[in-house]
Amino acid sequence: MILENNRTLKLKWIFASLLASLVWLLPISAQAALSPVAVSIFPPLQFPPEDFSITGARLSLLWGDHRDVYGLDVGLLGNVTQQDFIGIGIAGGVNITKGTTKIIGLQAAGIANVNMNKTDAFGLQLALGMNYNNAASTVSGLQAALLGNYAPFTDVYGVQVGIFNRAKEVYGLQIGLINVADSLHGIQIGLLNFHNKGTFIVSPVINIGF
Predict the structure, then answer these.
(1) Are 115 and 133 spatial neighbours (Cβ–Cβ below 8 Å)?
(2) Which of 29, 43, 88, 166 could form a disulfide with 65 if both were Cys (CB 3.0 to 4.6 A apart)?
(3) Within a 13 Å sphere around the CA of 116, how many CA atoms are in the beta-carbon half?
(4) How would you class 79 by CB atoms within 10 Å of its CB: exposed for 0-12, middle for 13-18, buried for 19 or more?
């Protein structure tokens, strides 16, 4: 009788533990639609679907569109990330991230890099057209674009190069036809240089800030 009661208690305990584990795992499973790789022609002709997070590499013949990307992102025309991107992004056309962006080494685009939320770039952010960072961000390294870099809320630690350059704070060098910084701790070289908090707000050819 005692053995049967012990056995019944053990079975109940095991059942309760399994049930608790299942309840605990369900929210994670519902949220964590993960895939180590994504292959896309263009949405919806892509695997996996756009509500997945990619945790390895996304390769797009034309372009891809997914929730998050963590790793290597390569697209012939471009790629769209709806939320967070961390890694290396290379596109023949446009890289677009609507959530936060963390560039590890390289973000390069044939037309533009468009980052709509907080961005941290460590390394190179390059575009033949434009780099556009639309929120409080940091670039540590080189930000270069043929037409320009529009990053009015970005602190640049390094070099910003383009026909037009706009940054919040520059710790290093801006080179272009028109350079604009709220605070300058370095050198601007260009036709017109704007240091909004400097002694001389506008300076031709060269401007130095401390």
Answers:
(1) yes
(2) 43
(3) 11
(4) buried
pTM reported for the whole predicted model: 0.82
Cβ neighbours for 112, distance < 8 A, ≥ 6 positions apart: 94, 95, 127, 129, 130, 131, 132, 145
In angstroms, rounded to a whole number, what is the distance separating the alpha carbons of residues 96 and 111? Answer: 11
CA pair distance 12, 16, nearest whole angstrom: 6
CA–CA gap between residue 140 and residue 146 (Å, rounded): 19
**Higher local confidence (pLDDT), 49 or 14:** 49
Q: Which residues of 105-116 are buried (b: 16+ CB within 10 A; e: fewer)?
A: ebbbbbbbbbbb
- Which neighbouring-strand residues pair with 206? 189
CA 43/CA 30 separation, integer angstroms: 22
Q: Are 196 and 182 in contact (CB under 8 A)?
A: yes
More confident residue, 7 or 85: 85
Quick: pLDDT tens for 150-193.
Answer: 999 999 999 999 999 999 999 999 999 999 999 999 999 999 99
